[in-house]
Amino acid sequence: MSTLGWIVSSSVLMSLIALVGSVTLILSEQTLQRILLPLVAFAAGSLIGSAFLHMIPAGLASYGGGDSFYLWILLGFLVFFALEQLLHWHHCHRAVTDCKKPLTYLILVGDALHNFIGGLAIAGTFLIDIRLGIMAWLAAAAHEIPQELGDFGVLIHGGWKKRNALFFNVLSALTFLLGGLVAYAASSQVSVDFLVPFAAGNFLYIGAADLVPEVNKHSDIGKNFIHFVAFSAGIALMWAIKVSLGS
Questions:
Q1: pLDDT class of 88 with cuts at 50, 70, 90
Q2: Which of 26, 50, 73, 82 maximizes the CB count within 10 A of its CB?
Q3: What does the alpha-carbon distance between residue 105 and residue 99 come to, in Å, rounded to a whole number?
Q4: Which candidate, 118, 87, 89, places its Cα nearest to that of 195?
């Protein structure tokens, strides 16, 4: 498969993950909350593990060291920090009752921007190395599943009809494909090596600043242990992929 084929197919698959939110319609609130935070912890470990074990080493190999490389990592971190500050965006991984109806529109706008930037970043990894792209996609997908579960529940709680919630959730996810196509088109004009450290910064922000705080505020030692194991499993998965792919 060509690089463009990998970018398009992976972007479409990422967009279809938005449909996982419909699972919230058949799960009880208690069951959803029981599985959601371990999934969030697993996603956090996958993203952080991906950044340190794959993307930063691959970025150093393709982009080279120096201050500019690390500045791109910091810029990737800052872009997502600014996005959340600008939109007051919150994934609402916790109880959906924490979110109010007006926030449903901000969630969709925030997700669309988030997915566009994510599409740019993941496409950039495919352009450097297909194996790196696959790994980055898996880590990003691990994050998208709990996010979509939470976001879909917020839309329904905010008064959206199920069909409309699914449609607009998928629509906002399609900006991932748009970002991927923009990155591919730009690669014929300029070097896109900077997208790998930029993506690493994205992953570090989402994992450490957005997801970890969702799972480290509990006094229940049993739940904390489960979250720690899930987080460690996410890192272990990224290590196993690194070993199996020889990257």
A1: low
A2: 50
A3: 11
A4: 118
